[in-house]
Amino acid sequence: MKLFAEAGHGGYPRVDPLKAFGNCDVPMGEFWNMQRFWVTKESASGANIYGKKVVASETLTGWNHWQHGPTDYKQLIDIAFCQGLNQIFFHTFAHNPEIVGKPGNAYHAGEHLNVNTTWWEMTRPFMDYLSRCSYLLRQGNFVGDACLYYGDQAPNLVPPKRIDPNLEAIFDDDHCLHCGKPKPVIVGELPGRDFDYINADVITTTLSTENGELVLPHGQSYRVMQIPDRLDISLEVLRSLEKLVKEGAVVIGTKPERSTSLKNYPACDEEVKAIAEKLWGKADGKSIFSNSYGKGKVYWGKSVKDVLEEMNLPPDFQVKGIKNDHDEIDYIHRQTKSEDIYFISNSSKSNQNISCIFRVDKNRIPELWDAETGLIQRDLQYTKVEDGISIDLIMDPLASRFVIFRNKSTGKNDVGLSYDLQYGFNRQKTQNVIDLSSNWMVDFDARMGAPEIYQFEKLSSWTDVENKGINYYSGSATYNRAFSLSSEALSLKAEAYVVFEDIQEIARVTVNGNDCGIIWTPPYKTNITQYLKEGSNKISVQVINNWNNRIVGDLKNPEEKEYAKTNAKYQLSADGPLLESGLIGNAEVVFRK
What architecture is the 317-424 domain classified under in CATH? Predict the structure, then answer.
């Protein structure tokens, strides 16, 4: 298998990184945690235009050593999924013999996700989520309204659509968010529409026009093409554009005046002018904005958004109810012969109450597929509207959903689906609440410097208690307490959930000795209904934080016992922050209809 990483960024002087992706089996980009290095759209575009199904990425590189967990990672990976990613390669160091100790050997960059990660034993739900998403996002073809020809200047690049939202943007919309270089094509605002970048190789060899659309042999298609706002253009590309437009294609861009090459100069420039005269005609981009040529049309002075609206093509995905200025609700759309597959992501840390309009056949039936659990909700409320199908959704913080449109559906939810994927964890349906926010006994591993047992009068971060061993503790701790249930509470015939305000980083809940599952995404809850009994009930919560606090504690106390063993301690500082850990804030048992 031939992989190709980081094409077009990091100083690589490549004229055509998309062609480099076309020459490998798995196009591979990268995206970083808490850094601006995002090269995901580039590898996805390369895959889409060359008919590759797998889009890989060096994932979660960075210098935030042992500071984040699956919830943080999900936010960034979902954003990368929406740019076309569907294969995760974690940036980590694999060789860690037991003799080295824990957390062990580490490369100078990366999130160090390996068997020595504190919460490795609870990583299965996170990995299952990534696998389900990756599989679905390889089905069919990508749906994009536009292809953007990025010219043949060197070096060339494909800018990301988004980067880590936890960073403040330092470059404007006309420059790459990743590196600050001018974008090769300025597409402008294009809400609810997606696109690929395309190169001269594909335009001149495999792209054709069918029924007014730009089509590739493997089925990928686009409604319009935009070319760079430049006075020069590849003569070979312009010759192909003439043929494409004559057969019905729509092209948007500045009228060129000369060739990018000196081959056969000055005849090359004369041919550019002659073809441009035919394609652009009297269009000047100021008072005349289009020219018809053959079955197609060329626009100058109008944006992609303007042209698509003039073509009466509504957005592929519309979000109503919020501003969505920063694409907090993001999406990607793939299409098979029988299904439309939308992945919807809420990258914000707050609930989003939205209405979504999907540009699909109104006779198709929507289903919600939950990649976290693998369960499907088929009993949905939806409305047929002018532009397609409208669905109301309440998206929990950092939540995501697959919305699958099919020709047929059973209308029956999967057995075991107790959580409404459409409207979220609606507290308005609450019938009874038992407060569990106080009086927990917590068992720690004394081998890591903490006391064997400690009582939390209220749930607060390990870094807030007056005990250095707990402040610097990294690893697993188990919270225990009992609560009573009356026969009246059990007779409500309601579902019971244990709900926590915050968990850092991940937790497994046990009720009366029964495993109730791992909690790793907000709202931090799990269903405990079937394990409750009248009278006294015991709840245990195993919580695991990250390595950061133990390493910082070792650095603060160099004369004392060293608990964490790694070659990368120099990456952290004795003055570094201690990270919140454990169960924090309110905890409740909630009975819902």
Answer: Sandwich (2.60)
The secondary structure of residue 204, as a DSSP letter, is: H
Strand partners, 519: 507
Distance separating alpha carbons of residues 116 and 106, to the nearest angstrom: 10
| Secondary structure (DSSP) of 364-421 | SEEEEE-TTT--EE-----EEETTEEEEEEEEPTT-EEEEEEES-----PPTT--S-T
Residue 16 has pLDDT above 70, yes or no: yes
For residue 10, name the pLDDT band (cuts at 50, 70, 90). Answer: very low
Distance between CA 127 and CA 120 in Å, rounded?
A: 11
Burial of 100 (0-12, 13-18, 19+ CB in 10 A): middle
pLDDT in tens, 357-382: 999 999 999 999 999 999 999 999 99
Element of type H or E holding 468? helix 468-471
Domain over 430-568+575-592 is classified CATH 3.90.180.10: no
Q: Are 164 and 207 in contact (CB under 8 A)?
A: no
Distance CA 145, CA 378 (A): 29
Per-position b or e across 2-19, b if 16+ CB within 10 A of its CB: eebbbbbbeeeebebbbb
Instruction: Retrieve residue 120's tokens.
Output: 């490795």
Give the model's pLDDT for residue 315. 98
Neighbours of 333 (CB within 10 A): 23
Tens-place pLDDT, residues 403-431 = 999 999 999 999 888 888 999 887 677 88
Beta strands 352-358 and 400-406 are unpaired
Domain boundaries, the chain: 3-222, 317-424, 430-568+575-592
Say what the alpha-carbon torsion angle 404, 409, 411, 412 is, to the nearest 10 degrees: -90
User: Whole-prediction pTM value?
Assistant: 0.95
CB contact at 8 A, 228 and 184: yes
